[in-house]
Amino acid sequence: MRAPARKHNRVRIKAHNGFSLIELLIVVAIILIIAAIAIPNLLRSRQSANQASAVANLRTISTASVSYWVTYSNGYPPSLASLGGPSSAAATCNQAILVDEVLTTAPFQKSGYQYAFVGQQGNVALPPAGCVPGFLGYLATATPITIGVTGNISYCSSEPGIIHDDTTGATPPDEATCNALPTLQ
After folding, report:
1. H-helix segments, the chain
2. Can you tell me whether residue 160 is helix, strand or coil?
3. What's the rounded Cα separation, in Å, for the pair 31 and 21?
4. Is 90 helix (H, G, I), strand (E, B) or coil?
5. In total, how many domains does the chain have?
6. Of 39, 50, 110, 185, which sees the most CB atoms within 10 A?
7. 27-49: b or e for each residue (b if 16 or more CB lie within 10 Å)?
8. How far apart are CA 25 and CA 37, in angstroms?
9. For residue 59, is it within any domain?
10. Is-contact 61 76, C-beta < 8 A?
C-alpha cells in the first residue's frame, strides 16, 4: 500500500515544477496594468520638470542680460551666444560667459525647450570698442520642442525681468505680445 502512495506523490511534485500558462498570463496582465498607470504619470512628471527648467533658464538669461549691461556698458546683449562662451577663455563683451554653454550654443536647446533671444528697441548708439552693438531691449523665449511631449507651456521675458507664460505653447513674436500674456505666479 505504501508503494502507490509514493508514486502518487512523485507525480504530484512533477506537476508543480513550473508555472502554468494562466499564471504567467495573470502576471503579464498585472505588469501591463501597472505600466499603463505609471507611464502617463512619468510623462507628466517629465513635462513638469522641463517646464520648471525652462522658467529657471529664462530667469538666468534675464539676470545675465542685466549683468551684461552693467559690466560692458553695451546695453542688453546682441545675442544669446554673446552671453555664453568657453569657460577656458577670458570673458569679453562678445563672449561674456554669464550663461551655461548648452543654452548659448546652437541649436539653443535644453531640457526639451528651444530658447531664443532677440534684441528690441534698437541698438546702443556708441558700443565699446570691439563689441558688437547691444540692444536697448530684448525678448527671451522658451518654447517646447514638441508641444504635448516635452512641455505644454511657452515662456517669455523682456527687460523688466517678468516671466510670462502662454498655455498654447506658441512663441510670442515681439515684446508687446509677451508683455500682454499672463505673468507667472
Report:
1. 2-15, 21-72, 101-104, 175-180
2. coil
3. 15
4. coil
5. 1
6. 50
7. eeeeeeeeeeeeeeeeeeeebee
8. 18
9. yes
10. no
- Which letter does DSSP use for residue 154 in this model? E
> Measured on CA atoms in the order 102, 107, 113, 119, is the torsion positive or negative?
positive
Cell of 29: 496582465
- Per this entry, what is the length of the chain? 185
129 in a structural domain: yes
Contacts of 122 (CB under 8 A, 6+ apart): 135, 136
The verdict on residue 52 lying in a domain is yes
Nine-digit cell string for 167: 498655455
Domain that holds residue 132: 20-180
Q: Is residue 76 part of a domain?
A: yes
Q: How many C-beta neighbours within 10 Å does residue 138 have? A: 26
